[in-house]
Write a structure and sequence with these properties.
The complex is a heterodimer.
Chain A: H1 5-32, E1 38-43, H2 52-60, E2 83-89, E3 92-98, H3 107-111, E4 117-119, E5 125-127, H4 137-141, E6 148-149, E7 158-159, H5 165-169, H6 175-179, E8 185-189, H7 190-203, E9 223-226, H8 247-275
Parallel strand pairs in A: 1-9
Antiparallel strand pairs in A: 1-8, 2-3, 4-5, 6-7
Chain B: H1 16-24, H2 33-55, H3 71-83, H4 86-96, H5 106-127, H6 136-139, H7 148-175, H8 178-186, H9 188-208, H10 226-252, H11 259-294, H12 303-329, H13 332-356, H14 370-391
Helix pairs in contact in B: 2-14, 3-5, 3-13, 4-5, 4-9, 4-10, 5-7, 5-14, 7-8, 7-9, 9-10, 10-11, 10-13, 11-12, 12-13
Classes of the chains: A alpha+beta, B mainly alpha.
Amino acid sequence: MGLDRRVFFKLLGATGITLAIGKETAAKPTSKSEIEFNGILYDSSRCAGCRTCEYECAAAHGLPEPKAEVEVIRKTDETCNTVVNTYQTSKGEVYMKRQCMHCNEPACVAACLTQAMHKDKTGPVTWNGDKCMGCRYCMVSCPFDSPKFEFHSANPKIQKCDMCFERQKAGEKPTCVTNCPNEALMFGKRRDLIKEARRRIYEKPDLYVDHIYGERDAGGTGWLYLASVPFEELGMNTQLQQSSYPALTKGFLYSVPTIFVLVPTLLAGIHQATKNNHPKVEEDEY
Amino acid sequence: MNTNYQIALDHDGKSIWKFLLSELKPKGKFFTPFNIISIPVMILGLALIVYRFIYGIGSITNLTQDTPWGLWIGFDVVTGVAFAGGAYVLTFMVYILNMQKYHSIVRVTVLNGFLAYVFYAGALLLDLGRPWHVVNPIIGNSFGVSSVLFLVAWHFLLYMIAQLIEFSPAIAEWLGARRAHKILSGMTIAAVIFGITLSTLHQSGLGALYLMAKDKIHPLWYSEFIPVMFFVSSIFAGLSMVIFEGSISHKVFFSQISEKHHKEQNYIIRGLSKICAGTMFAYFFLKLLVFIHEQHWDLLNTPMGYWYLLEMFGFVLLPMMLFFYSYRTNNISMVKIAAILTMLGVILNRLNVTVIGFRWDMAIRYIPSWMEFIVTLAVIFTEIWIFRWVINRMPVLRDSPSWVNEPK
């Protein structure tokens, strides 16, 4: 092997550069982990139930104007991404806004086999029509029933709140936050929102229940809720598990490579072992 | 010399295309009771499918935003695939364990399994809102590898190929393709090993699909062990289907089956009933363990609890005892009754997870529309038509042509 002096120096130089760069990259992951999801804090005690957010949301997403409040409790559907309901509670009328929660580890994204559902690194969970095959597994998996499907369309779409992803990319706040007249909605980094929510509970312990919905529910969500009555009274499911939903299928998915290696080996082994015993099947056995 | 290297034999001097064309024509009587019932259903089903693709899935189904999956997934796909499990169990017994006495029913079972996958995966296409994107997870521009459905979709595709390879010697015998027959027969073992591995994973995978719907399925049916339950129950679901289908085939296609195989049939059924009894015992025991572990004693005294007890005792324990008893007393007609009860039990179990127990607490429950039932029936009838077409032409039930076993 001819390693002359020139090649040796080249290699030495390359190694030196690699070492130098290597030091730099080693510091990078810490700065990466500082990226924090955007979220929205909804303070039910500040909400006046004016439904401005519903109208602004529909206008911004090209959806039909929200219908008048006829039903007592309305749900989001394929024509409306958010609803504000009025609940009769132990503390009188309390309002509750509902929309996609933008989970930290969304079940819909783990469920999607085409990556049409996507959790952006800034937080919003969005849907991509160019990839979706309309299997609706996201709807089956979502613990909040957020994705809605156009059952009466030949080219159906999945509808849900996208946290105004396009506006966020342009540096603006989601349209519901911008237009809320009562400052019931607050947009920011999820970590800061939790701090703010804690501060509000600490300052007015008589006003709020000591629970930030979404801090841990379903493994943590982008939308965080404060309310003056327990969340069960406001139609929120407080029985959801505190860990993420994709974790439920992790065990099964992790077993796949093991089975793919071990089972064929085992089968081939048994086949080899039984191959040469040809048991004579006697005619009178039948 | 030349004939040895020919791909396909001459069929009475006709070219291969003329032969295929002549084989396409229907054989036998046309106005049979089955045809008279199935043809209108298939035509109506086709019309409904066309209507669905113009006006959307909601136009013929009762699916809602809360129950996005209904009869087509719960019955056609999840239950249908469980019944197709006979193919991997029998290939395991015959090719891996070398249990030669079951050899005569392997081909028909693999054919059944293959057609079941083709048609039930086909039924999946009807349920897709945007079926033109169905290739996305296959061609690799968007691999959703964290999805159980991604795994199931790939396994369906690969398992269909494996089953086609397992069945292909019969096609080669039909076409008289000797060289192709030799090559394809040599691939059988590899296809079998691959196929069994895939089946283990996707039979359980169909259960794993529902793991994230933790808060939506009735607690008596939801547990983290759904995948294991689905896998174990697919063994006796598949074998019950083999018994059921075999006893019908032996009547309908009586003339095709050699006397030797007719004699074997009861012996085979008796052996299968023993295996069914064993796996059902294991399944019942597993169910019991899960039930005790989850501690849902209070739920038993509710309507859903009675329903659960009916499934467990009426459609698992009872047919298990019938299988065992008929094995001991050599009572073939009782095996058939047990097989039908078992199949009903598997349908019940799959629907309890996917439809009946799914959102059991909703004020307005999902009940499939009559059109969903018609489309489901149309899919099943079309499958039976293709099955009959193949049986009447290829050596599936009848013996292979004599050249197959000739020394070269």
